Amino acid sequence: MTPSPFQLERYFAVHEFTARYLLCSSDPESMSITDLLAFEPGSMEGLGRLRLGYTEYPGAPELRQEIATLYKSIDMENLIVHTGAQEAIFSFVHSMLKPGDHMIVHMPGYQSHYSIAEAAGVSVSPWLARESEDWALDPDELETLVRAETKALLICAPHNPTGYLPERERFDAIVEFARRHGLWLFSDEVYRGLEHDPAARLPAACDVYEKAISLGALSKSHGLAGLRVGWVAARDRNVIAAMSTFKDYLTICNSAPSEYLASVALRHTGALIERNTSIVRNNLAILDTFFARHREILEWRRPSAGTVAFPRLKRGDAERFCAEVLEHTGVLLLPSTLLEYGNEHFRIGFGRRNMPEVLQIFDNYLREHGSK
């Protein structure tokens, strides 16, 4: 298979470590190993004693036990740890789908949600979010998209890049549609835990539907992208068996130090999520004022969860706009062309502590050039 070039990642390959300021990152504020281990006395010594041999292919038992605490119906045997979320998506497509199958995908979205499937001979129908309704999904539209060969429905909730989070009734309608048609429901939940109002948090899909596969990772919720730890949780043991077998041709097993550090992080999930949501809430208040000040050129739909949003540029094209902002200020934004969603939007990230300072640079630029 030869998937299409991952446009977002190619863009970051050029700019992420050369741009002076990042204002489009999807991951929240990270931390040092020392800061992480400070949550747990004795963990630094434990890391020092760690043996650097192979680990168990589905993930260390200690780690899977900690991940299982995030779910109501999942135990450690229902989990496979992967090297980040990307590997898990790749494995699902190649384990559970075949050429000629059809999948419905929530869009706009992360390119691997659909490009991997297309490269594997799976046809994809986009289920488009409705911008006019704050990026809401309409479950009634699903009946117009389903086919005899449809095998899976993929959603991302909380959503990247819009920050949309379905209310419970809408989520239940999506699950009921998947159940009625016997579809795999692949639910990308890497931002779960970063709801701006914790009362709005949805259950994990795997806890409410027997054919759901929930995708989790430490990159977003915990702010630990450098650990490269993701996982899938599924009640269907056939999914676990198939994806386990396929993983033998991928990373085989995971990094022992990463798994150790991930276990520490998961034991302190509440503290890490509160740390990240506190940053997000403070930054959102600043963004509300910023977008109100520039309402003539920018349209802001306030996100409900996560660390990213998808404002619209009211005039001009986003690709040129982002290039000019980068050239004049060193501030990196992400144009919607890289997400295959027209040329009017850009992704902005607000999960990092330096966002107010970077936003001020962007603000100064708009004050000088925004009306041109």
Strand and helix layout:
Elements: H1 7-15, E1 21-22, H2 33-37, H3 43-49, H4 61-68, E2 79-83, H5 84-96, E3 102-107, H6 115-119, E4 123-128, H7 142-145, E5 150-156, H8 168-180, E6 184-188, H9 205-208, E7 212-217, E8 229-234, H10 237-247, H11 256-267, H12 269-293, E9 298-299, E10 308-309, E11 312-313, H13 318-329, E12 331-332, E13 334-335, E14 346-349, H14 355-369
Parallel strand pairs: 1-12, 3-4, 3-5, 5-6, 6-7
Antiparallel strand pairs: 2-8, 7-8, 9-11, 10-14, 13-14
Helix pairs in contact: 4-11, 5-10, 12-14
List keywords for this structure.
single chain; 7-stranded mixed beta sheet; 14 helices; 14 strands; 3-stranded antiparallel beta sheet; alpha/beta; Aspartate Aminotransferase, domain 2; globular
Summarize the structure.
Helix content is 38%, strand content 15%. The chain is of the alpha/beta class and 372 residues long. The chain folds into 2 domains: 7-32 and 270-367, Alpha-Beta Complex (Aspartate Aminotransferase, domain 1); 52-268, Type I PLP-dependent aspartate aminotransferase-like (Major domain) (Aspartate Aminotransferase, domain 2).
What do these coordinates show?
Keywords: Aminotransferase, Transferase. This is Aspartate/methionine/tyrosine aminotransferase. InterPro entries: Aminotransferase_I/II_large (IPR004839), PyrdxlP-dep_Trfase (IPR015424), PyrdxlP-dep_Trfase_major (IPR015421), PyrdxlP-dep_Trfase_small (IPR015422). By secondary structure, the chain is an alpha/beta fold. The protein folds into two domains: 124 residues, Aspartate Aminotransferase, domain 1 (Alpha-Beta Complex); 217 residues, Type I PLP-dependent aspartate aminotransferase-like (Major domain) (Aspartate Aminotransferase, domain 2), CATH 3.40.640.10. Helices cover 38% and strands 15% of the residues. The strands form four sheets. The chain has a seven-stranded mixed β-sheet with strand order 2-8-7-6-5-3-4, with helices on both faces.
